[in-house]
Amino acid sequence: MLPQPDGGRTLCAEVIAVSDMNNQAADGSVYDVVVVGGGAAGLNAALLLGRSRRRVAVVDSGSPRNAPASHMMGFLSRDGMPPEALLGVGRTEVESYGVELIDAQVDHIAPGFYVHLAGGPVLKARRVVVATGLRDELPDIPGVRERWGRDLLHCPYCHGYEVRDQPIGVLGTHPNAVNHALLMRQWSDDVIFFPHTMELTEEDRERLAARDIRLAEGTVKWLVVDDDKLRGVELAEGSVVPRSAVFVFPRMVPRDGLLTDLGCEKDANGWVVTDATGRTSVFGVWAVGNVADPRAQVVTAAGQGSAAGFAINHDLLDEDIARAVEERRAMATAEPSFRL
Q1: How close are the terminal C-alpha atoms of the chain, in Å?
Q2: How many other C-beta atoms can be found within 10 angstroms of the C-beta atom of residue 60?
Q3: How far apart, in Å, are the Cα atoms of 31 and each of 24, 57, 82, 317?
Q4: CA-to-CA distance for 168 and 193, rounded, in angstroms?
Q5: Locate the FAD/NAD(P)-binding domain: which residues (predicted)?
Q6: Interval 1-42: pLDDT, tens
Q7: Which of 48, 88, 130, 174 has the smallest number of Cβ neighbours within 10 A?
């Protein structure tokens, strides 16, 4: 079960710890929130928290998942914007609210929270947001890695419109590859599915045929490239099937080591469990973006970051109020009583 906000919870131990932190905050040693990961999710969380006048640091290693892509699509008002341009604008915006940007790799996070930077200092935080994304494991087929994000693509919603009506191929290298091919039929009448090493069921074949998706049987040898453009897919027996764009469903692996080391629960599919705000099963830890949601596009991740920032600020506020009440009670108890 995920922890839920509870105005009546006992915070004595937490109050003492947080009071100590705040005593240190004057010399700049404690952050309200440390965000690990400076993509859309992490920056949007930092933006909302910075605007809430929280002391925030964003630690980013500079390796976004969408770095190979030249443009970012499907983001209202930012459609077609280069990914690095969005991050550049975002970093400028959060800095204007006093958020500190730290270019570094986080080695590990110790309970408490102590965020250890690789070869650097340790940041103390009251709450942490992990927005470290995921990595795409691509099939070991020559040409796939080299063309990734150019004309070897994954997301139909990100790239399908740009290759509409072109000869499209879909590689059968993932259990979801058949569904991938069926979806791509919306963007082109010329879609060929390459089963590669997949064993297609009769139902698979029937569904593909019903959508007029042809099959190119045989093992894929490599992607044929000429003049820095994809020209086709060559099969092991030597035949080349002309294609101008090929889609592949990668194996998505969350970069969630920081979360699992803290003891965050995972679901049956191996993804960290969160509530609607990104709150994990561990007190004070949020996870947003692709590290917890493989389906999150850039615009989705940004929204998740905003929701997390909202929830974290209220969580900190509850703690601030509880601490203030405890301190007021302690002062009242310590004051001598005078009677005339």
Answers
A1: 56
A2: 23
A3: 10, 7, 31, 14
A4: 9
A5: 31-305
A6: 454 444 333 333 333 343 344 333 334 579 999 999 999 999
A7: 88
